[in-house]
Amino acid sequence: MSCLLQVSDPHFGTEQPEVLQALERLAHALAPQAMLLSGDITQRATRRQFAAARAFADRLAAPVIAIPGNHDIPLFQLAARVFSPYGRYTEAFGPDLEPVFACDDWLVVTVNTTRWYRHEDGEVSPAQVERVVARLAQASPAQVRVVVTHQPVLVTRPEDRSNRLHGRDAAVARWTAAGADLIVGGHIHLPFVRPLDEHFQGCPPTAWAVQAGTAVSTRVRWDAPNSVNVLRTEASGDGAQRVCVVERWDHSAADKAFMPVDLLRLPLASRAAGP
Question: Does the pTM exceed 0.90?
Answer without folding.
Answer: yes
